[in-house]
Design brief:
The structure is a homohexamer of 236-residue chains.
Chain A (H helix, E strand, L loop, with lengths): L1 E6 L1 H9 L3 H16 L4 E6 L2 H13 L4 H22 L12 H9 L5 E4 L8 H11 L4 E6 L4 E2 L11 E2 L1 E3 H11 L12 H10 L2 E6 L6 H5 L7 E4 L4
Parallel strand pairs in A: 1-2, 1-4, 2-3, 4-8, 7-9
Antiparallel strand pairs in A: 5-6, 8-9
Helix pairs in contact in A: 1-2, 1-3, 3-4, 6-8
Chain lengths: 236, 236, 236, 236, 236, 236
């Protein structure tokens, strides 16, 4: 089957500033290998992380418009994507697709067991890209590896009593998000409206997990383990 | 200055099934010429219209997923775009850009006084594309030519007492839209969430008018005439 | 082996305006599957149909030149191509090649058991494209599915006594065509001079059949059934 | 105005094996400069010449099919095109377009006063390309610089009494050509069926002249001089 | 005239970690504007800086080969390039060319007064790219803005008595460089063998200056000021 | 395993002017088939040969700069590449990649057992391209088929007592080359500085052999035969 995994840019911050980047990479490699050796194909969508935030912050200080800042964030995500694609093994597509056509062409080649991609277009986050990739590849799972343990009922950075939800209906999720998201991305990183729309219409089985649990994904997709939060679409 | 004009696919339905397509085209040509001869550049974003709906309906009957249906709609919009680009004069870019990079390359060439574009990516409507084009070109106006006279306070197809709003704050607009829009496009054609997001963040002066009023656009941008509904962003 | 099949745009008119498009698509899908499951690769070249004719007619009324009209027809054929490619199964290339390089790249990937393509360049019909595709892929068969039962000895729309030819030498065919074809395409849809030239020089086994017989193609290529007209090239 | 000039590959044979290539190039440069300095734009379509013939002959000996041989000829023509584009001045587009989209993009940039192009697609000669370029740019003149002084009433290589025609109706031309052309290109180089078709439908003013008369083109387009043969389309 | 300016990645380190990035950008903008307003065209080639070094260092720890590390460095340089292109004004090409063809296409459009580019290909540094850009555009000046004040007679990081050379013959420069450069880039950043080769063969007037002197470039090219080191090519 | 083979343009001169080109091609085909049938993938990098030299010589006479001459040489090498790719069998990629991205995309498709490529960028020879291709594909062998029997200790064209070296350390090779190479390519064709740099850093097993020994490559890579000169990198 096909599996789309979004990896938060914050994963790359850990990779860059951690003493033992090998640990992170080894766990990621092992996870991917475990899945591809069972015949699955994996599509990795990566965010921009701290580098994106630093460059965007410079640009904002200097009065660039949001379109330009989005493009800069996309370039930063591609830097992460190219690093990641080279860290994986030979079955990984050796280029970073820059638009949906590029991606579909790479996808049509079944030799490419793994494809790594960053941002695509201004106005959408990498979670939106991940949902599009999942829909276009008819992925059975979309797994959003982020820097929180799952979806909370309130913004955990502002509410001490915020509780993690082991599953959440997509309609409830929309309500939760409408309370925490602003126009400009960045503060409370979660699924954007495009991602919600695609997950709903394509009824993609979606999990939000912490990227520290990345090595547990094979167990999750085999139904052996339940971590993070599941977004439920069946009942709408 | 730069002006982005979205033209509903329904305009093309008129063009195709009307006895005097010359009238429609002449008015459009005159309007464009009036603006370009004053030194303005015009970016036209066109929808798919009835052809898109027919093809999508066949596809849906045959169980295509929404991603595929969106792609089919994009191809239909490009057919309209290429027709329109050839109907305009020599200062029109002779190709239909298919992604944002293509568009920016065409835009960088100031010989191209007019560029016509259709859809870009699944998951977004042509109104979203139009907002992106307006933001990327720092357009002073975004004019959405649709098949209604403007924005109503309720869905006019279901409410006899729906009233047109000569101006509407973008926050109110979001509320109105949340009551009328479904996940699948088509029934009550208006501005999508991406368009709203871009209009808000880029503070683009936006008007929604009927495409029958397309010849009045030069008066509108000169501030000589007020038609349709204005979306207000200044106060948010 | 490789098989190139041209499908008249009129097939799509049936698909769009017929009550049971499922029937058409099911027969097409079954035929393709029957061939690919035996290891054959299929290249489908599709025409523009009624939509092309409608758009071209608008354009001609408004004095577009033939180059522009050809481009419009090409866009219409690509709309049919993208619909068709999504209606087929997973082994179909998920994009519509727009030039010969694109096609050859898709062709080099043997995962793509089926590739669907529309028009390529002004000045040539999709029957010319089909012959080029057949030659470039060294197809053993070129099958032209059109809206007539085969090649007639005279224009059947003007001659009541026109008779279908079960086989016709390519030289005779040239004579027949020289009597019925005008400069502007459309009235009596058949093989264009480019197609003739390629069929002759590459000695491609070519059949002209009615698209209602599309489900009989597997029997035709297995030599179990003889339908339509065969174009003979061996003796020149 | 726009002027399309086809230059036979044999011009390049002269350039390569002549002691004073400077003479050829100077005359060509002066002619181009004379036209561009009056505000005209020039589109040069070049053939493959002896190099094409040598490579194709090797390929044919080794049983390549005609599609492959055509591609090889196209590459040879592009080698001539790139040489020529560098020999001209700064207003020349610095790349060789490889398909019609490429060309139209280069054409939309009015800085490119001169664009040089070679072959585009198997199955058509560079005279067909030249006619397409002339039609797409609405060129007022198409000038075919070849290695004969004009169009003869019979094949001059076989008929001592062949006479040059100062003008020839396009219908007569078709008859003449049908007597001299074979399926495989090369022996009696003239206008191919695609070129004829485009010249007819677009009613392009077309002259066939000897490439030794290339310096007389400015006088020809100004109506000051009559050389070679004119192809008449007005009366059909 | 055309001027190619290479900007060390270290300039971007300053931009990112400095309290007042506005100062850096304002000086750069003013310098560019001063030159473009006199009709010059400017081609900026930017390096990867600290981000490139950090990503490459992670990759090297994880045993990526040098080809992959070069690609990663190229992506980092493009991130700097896109930031820079947005910080400049409207006459800047809105995309970052990724190969020489892309660049030449952007160059052929004279509207693009400024083009910003990063790395192009593994195995060459951005100083090599800068020399190629200078040669292809027939730039009258190539100015290498680096983090040293000019070219020293010995490696200044190892020799206290290293002296700056106000001018240096290209042959001497080769000798100096052969003593300080290793196979893997990074320690003593200077002109690479490709750059030397191009500077020699195209006889480009080349200066090496500190990027803190970037605002003095207009005076340098007007011959009003002498800073850094000049590389002399005339006498070889 | 992957094997990169550089074929001197002089091989094509033989092919073109020899009475029996079949002999050359048969030996090449057999060699390739022998390797691919054992599961190896072959990347062929071809030079421009006499055609390149003739065109470059015309260009130089007419004062083109070295950048333009390099581009012309690249086009000539692609003409050789396309001929060669068609002469090989069905597992050969049917296009000639024109930049590293193109190549990597073709490489990611494991159906392409053989890929043929010419030059890529001005400022580098095809031996540099071959080294890059070898590094990017992690080729176990780089075999440089040239018109000499191997590497000599001195320039054999000037020194009667020049002796062939059965193996040579890469550092020694650099010394030998520094004595024989000029800035402008052509006289004593050997490995360029880029090739040396890549061979060193990637420690690629490299052999220089005569192209007449091309049929011995399978024995060479199986370790059964020692011909030409080996470049040793292990000890540096």
């Amino acid at each position: 089957m096909n599996i789309t995994i979004k990896i938060s840019g914050k994963f790359f911050d850990q990779l860059l500033y951690n003493r033992n980047p090998e640990d992170y990479v080894t766990r990621l490699r092992d996870m991917i290998f475990s899945l591809t050796s069972e015949g699955h194909r994996i599509f990795l969508v990566v965010g921009g992380g701290e580098i994106a935030r630093n460059y965007i912050s410079i640009g904002r200080k200097l009065n660039l418009n949001e379109f330009s800042l989005d493009i800069i964030g996309i370039y930063a995500s591609r830097l992460n994507a190219v690093l990641l694609s080279y860290l994986l093994n030979d079955d990984t597509y050796p280029l970073v697709p820059t638009d949906m056509e590029d991606f579909l062409q790479a996808f049509s080649n079944k030799n490419n067991k793994v494809i790594v991609i960053g941002g695509l277009q201004p106005g959408q986050s990498t979670s939106g890209v991940a949902a599009l990739i999942a829909e276009s590849t008819r992925s059975e799972y979309l797994i959003d590896c982020t820097n929180v343990d799952g979806i909370y009922d309130k913004d955990p950075s502002k509410n001490n009593d915020a509780k993690i939800l082991s599953s959440v209906n997509v309609k409830e999720l929309e309500k939760i998000l409408s309370n925490v998201q602003g126009v400009n991305a960045g503060t409370y990183e979660l699924i954007d409206p495009l991602a919600i729309k695609i997950i709903k219409r394509a009824r993609i089985k979606t999990f939000v997990i912490h990227f520290n649990d990345i090595d547990k994904i094979p167990f999750l997709v085999r139904g052996k383990l339940k971590i993070g939060s599941e977004i439920l679409v069946s009942s709408y």
